[in-house]
Amino acid sequence: MASSKNQENTGQLFKAYTAESPEEVSGCYDNWADDYESHMRNVGYLHPAMVASLLTRHLPPGTDPILDAGAGTGILGIILTSLGYPNVVGLDGSKSMLATAAIKNTYAELHQMYLGKHLEFPDDSFAAAVSAGVFTQGHAPLYGLVELARVVRAGGLIVFSVARTYLDGPFQEQRESMEREEIWDIVGASERYDSTPLGEENLTAQVYAFKVN
């Protein structure tokens, strides 16, 4: 029974992994919004907690504002506000996920935007940007990190998870390119972990923290 339940819970996630456009990804999450949090709890989803933990190592509570890029239903927003970061702005491509996040009343603002496209925020708008479970197969492209660096002020942080096919190879290339251009410098990283430890398939991930120059 547990194995069957885990397969059901991760089925929507694997649909999103195979999406071929931001709009298709958003459609997957629009259809999943009502059950998303219960499904992800059942498979031991770790990205939001891991991202928040690394942020707290490098950014004092009370520092604001923080951009939650790929906010989904607001799991990370709840964690951040509970840890003492009161001004969190969220963005996501899915209207239904944003509607669920809005019910929680934890975000100062919510916007429908696609990570990987131009973000409608001025340069240097945020003290930090966080992104949990977004830089992975079928989701946001890695060049979306450049746009996050644009909207985070100098000395601010970008803390995010990287998973699946991005983790080996593609992310290393993106990271080194941004280091050569002096966009950011690494300040911390987690060990690798299984982002859904109760699922049928290991989904290896790692969380990074970079300081924007």
Explained architecture:
By secondary structure, the protein is of the alpha/beta class. It has a single domain, classed as Rossmann fold, CATH 3.40.50. Helix content is 38%, strand content 24%. The chain is built from eight helices and eight strands. Strands 1, 2, 3, 4, 5, 6, 7 and 8 form an eight-stranded mixed sheet that branches. Strand 1, helix 5 and strand 2 form a beta-alpha-beta unit. Helix 1 runs antiparallel to helix 2. The radius of gyration is 16 Å and the shape is globular. 44% of the residues are buried.
Secondary structure blueprint with pairings:
Elements (H helix, E strand, L loop, with lengths): L1 H16 L4 H11 L3 H7 L4 H12 L7 E4 L5 H8 L5 E5 L2 H9 L5 E4 L13 E10 L8 H8 E12 L6 H11 L3 E6 L3 E2 L9 E9 L1
Parallel strand pairs: 1-2, 1-4, 2-3, 4-5
Antiparallel strand pairs: 5-8, 6-8, 7-8
Helix pairs in contact: 1-2, 1-3, 4-5
Feature tags:
Rossmann fold; disordered N terminus; 8 helices; 8-stranded mixed β-sheet; alpha/beta; 38% helix; 213 residues
CATH superfamily: Vaccinia Virus protein VP39
**Mean pLDDT, as a whole number?**
84
Count the E strands.
8
**Shape call:** globular
- Tell me the span between the first and last alpha carbons: 50 Å
Note poorly predicted spans: 1-9
Q: Main sheet?
A: 8 strands, mixed
Q: Determine the structural class based on helices, strands and strand pairing.
A: alpha/beta
- What's the gyration radius in Å? 16 Å
The CATH top-level class label: Alpha Beta
Helix % is 25-40%
Secondary-structure element pattern, one letter each: HHHHEHEHEEHEHEEE
| CATH architecture verdict | 3-Layer(aba) Sandwich
The total domain count is: 1
The fraction of residues assigned to DSSP E strands is: 15-25%
> What do we call the CATH topology?
Rossmann fold
Number of helices: 8
